[in-house]
């Protein structure tokens, strides 16, 4: 499978070259700011007098709310050639002028509200960061997944024009091109997550990565360990998880190395459980409804490496996609099994539905062998993290304060909310095993933290020294089961791609 129809591959982003008042497409997006019942129009440049007069006359009767991402449609505004104007809330006067979070969310909501046809955005922004937020938000709001539809015109090409009054020194054209690359790869991550699990399994996921890497403008290398290589290489964690399925596991290594050799090297490890039944510790049927999304970590890692290569970031990035299907077949793993991991650690299996940490641990051990400066793992790992932080915030655990702070700061810039969580040393004892080096699961209380403590054991070099590492538990925000909101669609969200790219850019 390649990138399905309905992704941002069918959405073109371009920089407006004329005044937005002369733009003659379907929907023109302009902002409104205000509070206390008083609102005012804000655009990327002054609103034409005729249009401003008309809007001033009709706004009082609309009872507008300037809350971020609320929308109102006004047809045929005099002085503007667009068929209709979409007014979108940017918040208060203070927050509405220059806030990237407000701009990203407003742009996404406005494009979705505009419906079919071409869209132009003339939202106010002060700098390149604001322009990037508008462009990325707009592309995100345009996202649809129609790969499994037999006939659907929603996948038709969507033209999005972004108007800016930034001068050439701010390189607005380059900002739009950068945003296009980010949006395209976030969209690919969403496509992978949204694909039906009978079509996306370890081998087809592998083939999708190979095809995208081959077609990419970035210099990418792909290596694949199949089930035979995994068994011979001592990858007991992922081999054990995948042994209950007729579709065997894979570890795909996707690498980007810039021309300069004197750059940081970051290893990204992604959980790629293409469907999770829980194994013999079977989930209830309702708990399986979204388990096609249990590979969202691997999708985010793959998309990040491709985007880093296409953007030419001066950072070496290697992605390890740990792909398996967790099924209750006749040869499935059992509670009380003991397996030997890639780094030689023996692990007692207590719950076959805690499989994600096992595939990640093997991937982290493999990543450690390359001597990276950092290891970051991304996973839909624990329901406990969702209970703690809700469905829109991901947790961050780390053995390094600098790495943790960099990830949380990057997530804020990307508008992918996160929260740091501890790794309490007193909980480590709950992972002790009487029959193996370590048990893979601790007590029920603090389940997200003990999962992090388990993974921390594998962020070590051959001498047993810690490698700077962070664990991103994206179980909550990786899949939106409800209605679309702001710039976030229903289904796969592509969360963590933006955060990881911001983090990598910061290292550069």
From TrEMBL:
GO molecular function, one term: manganese ion binding
Active-site residues, record numbering mapped to chain: 283, 357
Annotated keywords: Aminopeptidase, Cytoplasm, Hydrolase, Manganese, Metal-binding, Protease
Claim: Manganese is one of the keywords in the record: yes
Binding site for Mn(2+) 2: 271, 276, 294, 355
Name of the top EC class for this enzyme: hydrolase
Residue stretches in coiled coil: none
Domain annotation Cytosol aminopeptidase: ranges: 188-500
CC cofactor note: Binds 2 manganese ions per subunit.
BP terms from Gene Ontology: proteolysis
Cofactor(s) this protein cannot do without: Mn(2+)
Binding site for Mn(2+) 1: 276, 353, 355
Similarity comment text for this entry: Belongs to the peptidase M17 family.
Primary role: Presumably involved in the processing and regular turnover of intracellular proteins. Catalyzes the removal of unsubstituted N-terminal amino acids from various peptides.
Name of this protein: Probable cytosol aminopeptidase
Organism listed in the record: Janibacter cremeus
Highest classification ranks of the organism: Bacteria, Bacillati, Actinomycetota, Actinomycetes, Micrococcales
Gene designation per UniProt: pepA
